[in-house]
Write a structure and sequence with these properties.
mainly alpha
Length: 117
């Protein structure tokens, strides 16, 4: 039972770190897209490819978070007293926000490709 608690806590922590990094990267791509549009300069295509790949990654990431949260509610919570899955819940909430920010960043990066030509 203790091994299950350690593995769930570790996976929850890793999920939270990945969610946080995706949110930070989404904001960075949004800022870069805004800067390139304001400068009327073409953004590097690699930024567009990376941001698109991150957008495709968000759906499996969100589904894993939901599965992990429901698994915690059904299996783990009853076995371990005083345990919470707040990091997983925060990760689930920030993933759609990251998707909206990232989608806007992709639009801005694409616009900067069109404007500069």
């Amino acid at each position: 039972m203790k091994q299950q608690r350690i593995s769930f806590k570790e996976s929850e922590h890793v999920y939270f770190l990945i969610s946080s990094m995706i949110f930070i990267l989404s904001v960075i791509f949004l800022i870069l897209g805004y800067i390139f549009v304001k400068m009327i300069e073409s953004s590097p295509v690699i930024l567009l490819y990376i941001s698109t790949a991150l957008l495709y990654y968000l759906l499996p990431h969100f589904m894993y978070g939901l599965f992990s949260f429901f698994y915690f509610q059904v299996k783990v919570k009853h076995k371990i007293v005083h345990s919470r899955a707040y990091k997983t819940f925060i990760g689930i909430l920030t993933t759609p926000i990251s998707a909206i920010i990232l989608y806007t960043a992709i639009l801005l990066l694409s616009f900067s490709q069109c404007v500069s030509e």
